[in-house]
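Please check the following for our workbook:

***
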Amino acid sequence: MRRAPISGLLALAVTVPGVVVALAGVDAPAAAAALVFGAAIVGAAFVLAWAAEAAQVDVSAGLAVALLALIAVLPEYSVDFVFTWRGGEAAARYGAACAPPGAETSACSLALANMTGANRILVGVGWVLVVLIAWRRSKGRGIRLGRADAVPLAFLAIASLYCLLLPFRRTLTLWDTAVLVAVFVAYSWRVSRAPAGEPDLIGPSAWVGGLAKTPRRATVIALFAVSAGVILLCAEPFAEGLVETGAQLGVSQFLLVQWVAPLASEAPELLVAGLYAWRLHTTEALGALVSSKVNQWTLLVGTVPIVFAASSGGWSGLPIEPAQRDELLLTAAQSLLAIALLVGLTLSLRAALLLAGLFVLQFALGAAVPAAWHERELLGLSLLYLALAALTLVRKRAHLLPMLRDGLLTRYEELGEDLHCTTTGGGRLRLRTRRWARIHA
């Protein structure tokens, strides 16, 4: 417990160089700026995650998980909104092309690249990481979720089916905003109905959660405010430094924005989930990542057209270029396969390795296939994801309707003991132990 405040102070200390450079207006080299501001965002994201975990003491169990997931992806929101805002400014200046003639990459494509990369990393790296740790720590077992975890999974299925339509569109519009934000609001309302429970806090969040009511709430609010301020201050210079670094090194801007930037913004969330899995809180770790996926696939995608409209001064919607349609299709297809693998509320090592293998395959194909065939490569990989998703759903068809019913209709009070598995005190530890005993190989 003594080390908990030290960990929090170290995370805050990491943010200081980025804040100082930003406020002082120092013109640092692009690579150094990207490193300093990226580190500040990572440190602030850790602080946000700890504050959100400590807030579980004062809110319902389901809402706490949704809040934690939402807070944890705020760095990704901030970075993607920077690219979206620039895309809107480019659209106002150059039209639907979003770039001057001869430009290698349009500003609008970078906004979608950041979003699709973040979503694919969350599943291809985050979900797989949790299962691998669970397999290592539990002597060869996978993860079994509780019935209550069907809630985020059901809403993720709805969002993924809708997003499967986006690749066939030419723009991402405010209509998409209305639909996806409505799904997010419905999901938030649903999880807010979950009964309250004692949270299982570790590290700095446990230290904050152990404070008396008034100082605890004041500390949580202060941590939220400080970390959010750091992220807002550093997001734009981080994006600028990243893009400029790519130009100087001859590295594709698209590659950096799609994979390097999301890795920086998603890193705290992945590390926190990995820590929970290491402590054998694997169901909570995977459940939080599923909830984060819901947030990114609904609220993040849904608010992009709002930011674009505000910066472009028009209502035509964010242009979806042909290459980006393939990226969106691949992202939606990956989501559907991940959902299909979780329909039975289990994720085995074999299923996790399948997700990891397909995630790595996209990079192997990108290196082996000529650039002229890139769109065919993405389309083929998307069809493979969809075919595997269909086969998995056929095999697990008996679990599909019960999962959707539990996720969308069943009252939380009827979802059983799985609602009370996140604490370590008294009898509830035994409930969690019984559920752990049901983990499937």
Summary: Strands lie at 143-144, 171-172, 318-319, 346-347. The longest helix spans residues 213-249. The longest strand covers residues 143-144. Confidence is low (pLDDT under 50) at residues 417-441.
